[in-house]
Predict the 3D structure of the following.
Amino acid sequence: MASYSLSKSWQSSPMGARVIRLFLGVTFIYGGWNKATDSGFLDPKSAHYIGAQISSYLTTSPISFILKHIIEHATLFGWLVMLSEFAIGIATLTGIALELASLGGFFLSITLWLSATWSVKPYFLGSDTAYAILWLALFFLVRNNTKGRRVTALLPDLRDRREALRIFGIAAASVAAVFAGSRFRTATPTPETGTAIAKLADFPIGSTKAFAAADGTPSVLFRTKAGVFAYSRVCTHQGCTVGYDAKSNLLICPCHGAQFDPTKDGAAISGPTKISLPKISVAIKGTDIVQI
Ligand code: FES
């Protein structure tokens, strides 16, 4: 039967591993808390929505072929990321299934590097590479520390009732943390109706600009000879964020290729949807372009 002691889990770690454990454990719990308290993270209408974030990585990420499938289940994926960050952070601080948590942290950091921070150049300015290396270092520090003294199994032995209970405790604490975070949700500050989206003088005819609408919806503003107009960038197929392609003068969805014509009221002209992009009402007021 595997015995467990919180203090022993720290005492048996070399000093270097303790420093890394403390930093990574606290940071991952903080990362989970940040998402759990963000009212937009799981809201498809928000510019912070996990699906919108993933959409914005599609053009640069080397794993875009995987991200395209994840986008279709973006909300579920968002839940998984939040729960994983809490579970990995708690396991790291408590020392329960520490090696498995280290590998989990490593794979999560590598995934974030290949998606969220892949376009950060030079690579050392993106933090996910450093996290990945810290997790890998922690894994080997913990593994080598136990070498020769006892054989540790990478996977927890769930036939051992106490070990199963400890793992269940981490899962329950992670779920509780997500729900606790949801009680502290703060609305994402978004511009109010009437707030300037752009200065007319800085936005000549032919200009395009991405912005967040008053309710947080990722949107895009155009100015042509006909005036100013704007659309939601949330694809009417499955909610990916469309991008403006200056060559074709179309709004194109990176997920399944839907194309929308901004000069024809945002009409869907090809791809798996027939529904136009919703219009966002904008107007010129004095020297500004505002949402009305
Ligand atoms: S989400 Fe499928 S085409 Fe945009």
